[in-house]
Amino acid sequence: MKTIKVLGTGCANCRNTIKLIEEVAAEKGVAIELSKVEDLPEIMKYGVMSTPGVVVDGKVVHAGGVPDKVRIAGWL
Amino acid sequence: MSSTATPAPTALSRWLLMLAVAVLLWISIYSHLVEFADWLISLLGLQRSTPFGEAVHFFFYDTPKVLLLLTGIVFVMGVVQTFFAPERTRALLSGRRQGVGNVLAALLGIVTPFCSCSAVPLFIGFLSAGVPLGVTFSFLISAPMVNEVALALLFGLFGWQVAALYLGLGLLVAIVSGLVIGHLKMENHLEDWVQQIQRGEAGWAGDTVDDWPARFAAGWHHVREIVSKVWPYILAGIALGAGIHGYVPEDFMASFMGRDVWWAVPAAVLLGVPMYTNAAGIIPIVEALIGKGAALGTVLAFMMSVIALSAPEMIILRKALKPTLIATFAGVVATGILLVGYVFNLVL
After folding, report:
1. Which of B48, B154, B174, B261 fits a 20 to 30 Å CA distance from B101?
2. Which pLDDT tens digit goes with each residue over B271-313?
3. B4 contacts in A (CB within 8 Å)?
4. Looking at the complex, does the CB of residue B190 fall below 8 Å from at least one CB of chain A?
């Protein structure tokens, strides 16, 4: 089980990112634990400068803009 | 942006071929815009001498022109932005002194991808990497104000001189405002949790795009993202502008937005703060107003205020800045825009 966190302050792109990750996970049948991090001090701890950011198992894998499906599939 | 596409020479040559075709098509359409509008008017049985005919002609001439320019400029910017990830810009600015740093920050603000929703993370990311507060502000003012959409529309509707003037003055406001804020030494007016963030905590090196097919793909992605977002505003703006163009009497605006009305510039700046729209919707209306006697300086001040001093962005920034610093930021930028408006009205 992978723990995935989406960093973002609630903008449209962050919501799209979460939706996409859920879709890809469902398509591939991978079990994930998806959560949102909206608290700014918390987001800044990851050293991300543009949101939405994606953290997989504690490691930042993406920042800035909605990731495409191929990349999401690569993380899962 | 993903760089998973293999940098095979075939991918590059395919892109170059597509670009060559697109550029040819672009030029041939762009050079026949008046003929197209004229043809459409005669097809509809309208006359340009009637208000309705003039409004329709305005709409069908301006819409394709603006959309073409927007597509072209946004594509080029999308490609250029792949060279300037926020992380790269931060590295370029880290440790710069006031002065040179402010100029560089304002310039980088044009080419670094920026969205007001990540203004705070960017702001803190810069500060924690040792970018001085004033330099960070120069970036933060320039990035939203001097953007490719505003420049494309100004270029399309007013010509390159006005676009260049807007670019130069926008940079000037960003540089000077950042210098002023830097000299006020307001580091202790950052929220406490921001002050506590350790230097050098940066953990993310950034996505790297390093081959040309990926850069072109990023440019195309940028076009789709921006154009799909702003075209309704542009159409609405041009439609409203067309109405003004056809029906509002000449010199109607001169009485309250003309250059002899001293209070027009501050009123325009104040009016702009609560308004939050992108440049796309506001510029076509602005063009029509100028045609009816509004002064260019007043109207440019209004535009800059709408784009650079938006209430929603200040609410976002409030999470990291104490009220005194927000007020200083707004005050300094508003003063700069005010001066730009007055100087413009005096000179032109």
Report:
1. B154
2. 777 766 666 777 777 787 787 778 888 888 888 888 888 777 7
3. 70-71, 74
4. no
Q: Which of A11, A37, A44, A61 to mutate to test the interface with B (most CBs of B within 10 A)?
A: A44
Instruction: Answer yes or no: CATH 3.40.30.10 is held by domain A2-75.
Output: yes
Does ipTM come in above 0.85?
A: no
Please indicate if any CB of chain A lies within 8 Å of the CB of B211: no
- Residue B221 is classified by DSSP as H
H or E, element range at B158: helix B148-158
Q: Rounded to two decimals, what is the model's pTM? A: 0.80
In a domain, B4, yes or no: no
Rounded CA separation B327/B233 (Å): 30
Cα separation, A51 vs B92, whole angstroms? 21
Q: Domain tally for chain B?
A: 2
Q: In chain B, what percentage of residues exceed pLDDT 90?
A: 19
In contact, A7 and A41? CB cutoff 8 Å: no
**Based on the domain organization, do B253 and B242 belong to the same domain?**
no
pLDDT in tens, B231-275: 888 888 888 888 887 777 766 666 667 777 788 888 888 877 776
| Residue-range definition of the domain harbouring residue B71 | 9-81+211-246
